[in-house]
Design a protein that fits this description.
single chain; 204 residues; alpha/beta; Double Stranded RNA Binding Domain; seven-stranded mixed beta sheet
Length: 204
């Protein structure tokens, strides 16, 4: 049996890994009436593990900066996400944010499938048979909001297949989301010089 293994975002240590894992988006929606490119974004990572929250938010800050967007990780202002709504509103208004990017960890799903071998003639001689493989898929929901109107601007669900580590999953998710927002012209469109790697960030 062939099985793929990952370190789940929900609570395992981060390791240094380059972004090499595919992330695909589905259920993508955007407000057709919103035409501005956001310049200053407040980033929120919603996961129960604080280390992963910090790394996810820092990853977005770095990737957005490469596109010319000023971004701030929410944990600097709100170490605990259980905060008063008005406190958040006051923070966003006083600092002049024109966007809020929220990424929520939704879980890890397992998918098992059969990988066929060489076909009928593989049963003879030294031919190989098939095998059962198990994929693990990290599912995340990401939304982009306009704080001035309190309206949703863009949303998508993402699947990241078999990341080798939490770092790998974060890097893949952030790279895919930020590049998509740039293509949609919801943020600045300047291409980053290099792909984001969370291993470059220091620990908080």
């Amino acid at each position: 049996m062939k099985t793929h293994h990952i370190l789940v975002i929900a609570g395992l240590a981060m390791s240094a890994a380059a972004c090499s894992t595919p992330t695909t988006l589905s259920n993508v929606w955007r407000d057709p009436n919103y035409t501005s490119a956001m310049q200053k974004i407040f980033v929120v990572g919603r996961t129960n593990d604080q280390t992963n929250r910090h790394n996810l938010e820092d990853a977005y800050v770095s990737a957005l900066a490469a596109h010319g967007v000023r971004a701030t990780a929410s944990y600097h202002a709100f170490p605990d996400l259980k905060v008063d709504r008005e406190a958040v509103r006051s923070q966003l208004e006083s600092q002049g944010y024109d966007g809020v990017l929220v990424t929520t960890f939704k879980g890890v799903h397992t998918q098992t499938y059969y990988e066929p071998g060489m076909g009928f003639y593989g049963y003879y001689g030294t031919g190989w048979g098939g095998y059962v493989a198990t994929d693990q898929i990290v599912k995340v929901e990401t939304t982009l909001w306009c704080p001035k109107t309190d309206k949703l601007v863009w949303s998508a669900t993402s699947d990241t297949d078999n990341p080798s580590s939490s770092n790998d999953a974060i890097s893949s998710i952030v790279t895919k989301v930020v590049s998509t927002l740039s293509e949609e012209r919801l943020i600045a469109t300047r291409a980053p010089a290099v792909a984001y790697s969370p291993s470059a960030l220091h620990a908080y």
